[in-house]
Amino acid sequence: MPELPEVETTCRAIRPVLEGQRVADLEIRERRLRWPISRKITRELPGQIIRRVRRRAKYLLVETDAGNALIHLGMSGRLRVLPSVIPPGRHDHFDISLESGVCVRYNDPRRFGCLLWTHGDPLSHPRLVDLGPEPLEGDFDGGYLYTAGRGRKAPIKQFLMDPRTVVGVGNIYANEALFRAGIHPRRAAGRISKERMGRLADSIKTVLEDAIRQGGTTLRDFLHVDGTAGYFRQDHLVYDRAGQPCLVCRTPIRRLVLGQRSTYYCPKCQR
DNA sequence: ACTGGCTCCTGAGGGC
DNA sequence: TGCCCTCAGGAGCCAG
Predict the structure, then answer these.
(1) For residue A34, is it left (φ>0), alpha (ψ between -120 and 50) or beta?
(2) Which nucleotides in chain B have some atom under 7 angstroms from a protein Cβ?
(3) How far is Cα A183 from Cα A200, in angstroms, rounded to an integer?
């Protein structure tokens, strides 16, 4: 379940092997991802030099002079770096192979991810243009959250998970950040003080930064052929801990469903 | 302008 | 051992 730290870790893993390299081939075995992979990318990407690899929200942008690939991992997608092309396995939907011999392989059992091809400024693509701020950059803080939340009746958790509010806060990290900030997940976004929004913004940054730090230690896994240990363990304070004691006050953690998503919280610590 | 609900898909895990 | 059911989840999309 790639959340922003996993995507950032993937970005850091593939950047050094892709940037400055020439694409030898794009082999697509399964076009039916979230959106079908266009035929155009098969014609236009091979032969191009990859100028830059970066991340915006949970999209990876692979930029060339002929166009830009936007890769989303959906919820079960992975990219692996292979030292050379080896026979594909189940759900290995496409390979970007380089003249250097290295191959970047996309695997996604559930096919919620995508590979899009766009010309011009990739940030203007319809999928990216309406996204909110990056949580780890300067324009995201308590003041922003407070202003954005004015008049909103939606539960704070759903408000946080809306990528128009802020990108990259998936279900697990929304739960964890709300616990650390002491805010009940069902509280209306518009009924949270500026001060508490400040704590929430700080919690989001901390939770994501910690996860990225842990992810950094697993970067080498992207070079493993089997790719098994790709995602990192995190010690969750509330996520998936229904019935177990709160690690702060021992009150049993509760579970509720918000927007069809499992939500975990401590009824005593979070108000 | 918001909000909630549905949808895509497969694998894991539980119950019997 | 094996079958069937439910659940998980990012985020686009639509209806109210």
Answers:
(1) alpha
(2) 2-11
(3) 8
